[in-house]
Amino acid sequence: MPKKIRWGILSTAQISKQIIRAAKDSANCEIVAVSSRHKSTADSWARQHDIPRAFQSYDEMLKCSDMIDAIYNPLPNSLHAEWTIKALKAGFPVLCEKPFTINAAQALEVAGVAAETGLHVSEAYMYRHHPLYDQVLSAIYEDKAIGNLCSIHSQFTFMMDNPEEVSGSATLGGGSLLDVGCYCVHASRMISRSEPQKVFAFENRRSGVDTSMFGLLEFPSGIKASFESSIGNFERHRLEITGTTGSIVIDDPWIPGNTATGFNIFRSDQKGEHFVVKGVNTYQLEIEEFADVVMGIKKPRWPVEDAVNNMKVIDALSASASKGKAVKL
Are 72 and 49 in contact (CB under 8 A)? Predict the structure, then answer.
């Protein structure tokens, strides 16, 4: 394997700029190709971002295994499964943007192809790579800083500026749950270290997508998680983890980023603490860890089964909101 993983990017989605910037500071990654449905767009991006090769179609790029080692897939949600599968079948490991697919059936199909090919595929939740979460999980499970874990409450909301965006399109797999609620679901599973057994959800719908969702997750241990996601109200980012003797509140749970961030621990004995965690480029950590897995240096912390399980919970929440009753997993 090469010392650096050479990445090809499917499409010129805006989120790709984060990956391009991350790769420029990376010791084991470089961007070598970008593709678009339009040659002029691909050429423009290649010039703008100093990418050596531009392709006028996704298929064309997937034929170049001699110059590309891995694929980053930031296409619209409705195309995630199709092109991740095509990339895997072409011989490339894939880092696919969240949400992994638009439903669990697609996620299982992707996982099946990954198993057949023996190639690594992962969902791009960059937030989980921030060392903040290692410290939070250590505080919960090793230090017992808040006693026994009881509940998790999260919010990820914003006001969508343009209804034509992917997040507002039913055709492209939009909606608040798939766009931002998926973070809340994932964090609840990661923090509880388990899978929910039952969910319940309410939603507001407009133009074929859920503009807001309020969800409840019940875990076998008795831990409960609640969340609010929205693409139609004021922007709020919050994550609170409550135990028998205290709670942890994370200042910036979803986009911790390059500036110092932190979390607060509040306790019943009034001896609260504030922890500061230095800023990091979570996109850089994400692609570097992916590269290490591809090169056999590390084992994946989040194998494809994690993405499948997240989609199963998302499906159940959608079903619950539609049926107006709790859904068991």
Answer: no
Whole-number Å distance between alpha carbons of 37 and 214: 37
Q: Enter the tokens of residue 73.
A: 């897939």
Domains of the chain, start order = 5-126 (3.40.50.720), 128-285+310-328 (3.30.360.10)
Question: What's the confidence (pLDDT) of residue 1?
Answer: 58
DSSP states of 273-327: EEEEE----HHHHHHHHHHHHHTTSS--SS-HHHHHHHHHHHHHHHHHHHHTS-E
Q: Residue 62 in 3-state DSSP? A: helix
Low-confidence ranges of the chain (pLDDT < 50): none
Structure tokens at 110: 């992707």
Q: Residue holding tokens 């996704």?
A: 58
pLDDT tens readout for residues 86-96: 999 999 999 99
